[in-house]
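Per reviewer request, we include the raw input and output of the structure prediction for the construct analysed in the revised manuscript.
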Amino acid sequence: MFLPRLNLLFAFILILVINFGCGSKSSLPIVDTHIHLYDTTRDEGVDWPLESDTALYRPILPPDFAKVCDENGITATVIVEASSRLEDNQWVLDLVKDEPDRYIGLVGSLEIGTPDFGANLKQLAKDPRFVGIRMRDRPRGEGYFNDAVWRDLNILADEGLTLDVLMHSFTLQEVDLIAKKIPSLKMLINHVSGVVIDGKAVDPDWARDLAQAATNSNVHCKVSGLFQQSQMQPSPVDLTFYKPVLDELWNVFGEDRLIYGSNWPVTMRGGSYGDYKAVVMKFLEPKGQAAMEKILAGNAYQFYGLK
């Protein structure tokens, strides 16, 4: 009887080690849906980041992110193209072609409302890793939403591709407008909607606009860029500083429409990747295993149509 009990105890300990690991790494699959890769030493250079950005202006390439993944238990990632040049979409796809399990998707960069948008989109979408585009720049200012822009957004929806929205040039009211006008277009608000985080209670006007955008079932939000949105640098690593904003996101989007992302390497301006991930994990852990599985990985696969 003594030996079987020892075997049973050993098996139990083994299960604990497998499920919980040794140290702070999570055993849950984690898909980081927002990183950037670029090479400042290319002959043509880069249009982002600026050379004056001492924190980011250096080659940021797959071996750099491999170290981040290994140290923080990141299962896979979706790259977001930060260049405005058409050819750089293919450059990134080629850069990571030998690591299909780690780099599972690319949110590309195409100028919406241009004559070649549809043809360029369809060409890039021949690669199943090309999952959509990000709406980032706003030429023409208040006159941005012309017929050509609406045409191209409809093409995006018809192709079954997604739209990330970088909020520094757009508003939550405009997210609501697009979502209502094209309900088949899957939209993902980046960087906790671009709200400034100061550790205080949220702005009621922002909360109202966020709730209105979230009434559209095709609108989702990334829990990304927390360090970037912080008014304090280096960014606080205490969850309480970010909790008012995170609570508001949870209240309106819930566990089915929040998606994890980091905004690495921009996170390095505020702190380490491990610090960033720890803040998010502390917020999610009380929500339970099922919610964590969705927000850290499952929702990303579903939203972007990844296998």
